[in-house]
Amino acid sequence: MNAPADFVETEQDGRRVLRFTGALTLPQLGDLPQRINAISAAKPRIDLSQIEAMDTVGAWLVHKLARETGGEITGGSEEQAALIEQVSRSDQPMKVRPDRTPPLYRVLGEMGESVIIAGRTLSGLVGFFGAMLISCGHLIAHPHRFRVNAVVQQFELVGVRALGIIGLMSFLVGVVIAQQGAVQLRQFGFDVFTVNLVVRSSIKELGVLMTAIMVAGRSGSAFAAQLGSMKLNEEVDAMRMIGVSPMEALVIPRVLATVLIMPVLGFYAAMLAIVGGATFCWLSLGIPLDTFVQRTREIAPMTDLWQLLIKAPTFGLIVAMAGCFQGMLVEGNSEQVGLKTTAAVVQAIFLVIVLDAVFAVFFTAIGWP
Fold it and tell me: Which DSSP category does 5 fall into?
């Protein structure tokens, strides 16, 4: 058993020496802290050569004595010196309140951080797209590794089960567009042009755009949550251990199903929006349904449908990639699943709207207004 902690004061070469003995540990300290506080010697030499043991409390007492008296610590072992050094590092003044950052600097700092995060995310998404293309090449070279059942299952989850909510949303959007357009056009006596507004906006923009947003909120978030949970449960690592590529087994079926089903969902949403607009025009404006259909055939060029069919798979690719990409980034704890799911939805919707604007400018430039 270690001896109680103690010290003696001596003088050597005209300098006061404090020689500690015993164990500088909490159970063996006794009244040593009070005796140390009573020491008035200036710049003594603190000799630890006869110390049997030391814990954090003992190291703190030695450090405090050296700090207050300006003394020099000598004679300790390497372990004791390292412990005293660690204690001294923690002995730093702490601010109760952090320094106040000027609002302008804080806003600029947050903006800069957001730009850096956006750049890293975009770079990671491009890299993820490249890895997906490489996996597609492997599947083309080895068709037997393609999982048809997984794609069909995603068809049901992304497409079939979304028909109800997408149809209802599109129908109501068509009603709202017709109502708001009629209110404005009635001022000039052009109620009949409500048909033009509903039909062309539904086919070119609203149908596919609203569908992409709904798929991002419904399926993109599901992709991120599913893959994130699998990463936390180490299922993705287990797949790699047995030689199964997570990209081929998890990502490509989801992306391919979304890309293929989006044109169908976009066309379906556009038709339901037109039906909603036609219903409003029939009930409120007195435009017969056969007149609405005839007018639709006259004003809707085939290029509008081509725009829908080009935008839809592109939006589907973006939505599915964003969801899978964020899901594969999950690590650490379950809180990351929620954060990455939110990030997937925000990222997908943002990119879809940006691409829609790019498509609008591009189609106008090539003569598809």
Answer: P
* CA diameter of the chain: 115
CB 173 within 8 A of CB 197: no
**What ranges make up the beta strands (E) of the chain?**
6-12, 15-24, 45-54, 72-74
Q: Residue written as tokens 């006794």? A: 30
Q: Where are the CATH 3.30.750.24 domain residues in the chain? A: 6-90
| Torsion sign across C-alpha atoms 100, 105, 107, 109 | negative
Note the pTM of the prediction, 2 decimals.
0.74
Name the pairing type of β-strands 45-54 and 6-12.
unpaired
Q: Which residues contact 21 (CB under 8 A, 6 or more apart)?
A: 3, 5, 6, 7, 8, 50, 51, 52
Going across the sheet that includes 72-74, the strands are 6-12, 15-24, 45-54, 72-74
Q: Give the closest residue to 163 by CA, choosing from 69, 250, 264, 245.
A: 264
First to last CA, the chain: 92
Alpha-carbon span 93 to 70, nearest angstrom: 18
How many other C-beta atoms are found inside a 10 Å radius of the C-beta of residue 305? 14
Quote the distance between the C-alpha of residue 56 and its chain's center. 41
Helix and strand counts by DSSP (H, E) for the chain: 15, 4
CATH class of the domain whose range is 6-90: alpha beta
Span 5-51, pLDDT tens digits: 888 888 877 778 888 888 888 888 888 888 888 777 678 888 888 88
HEC sequence for 131-143: HHHHHHHHHHHCH
Q: Are 43 and 71 in contact (CB under 8 A)?
A: yes
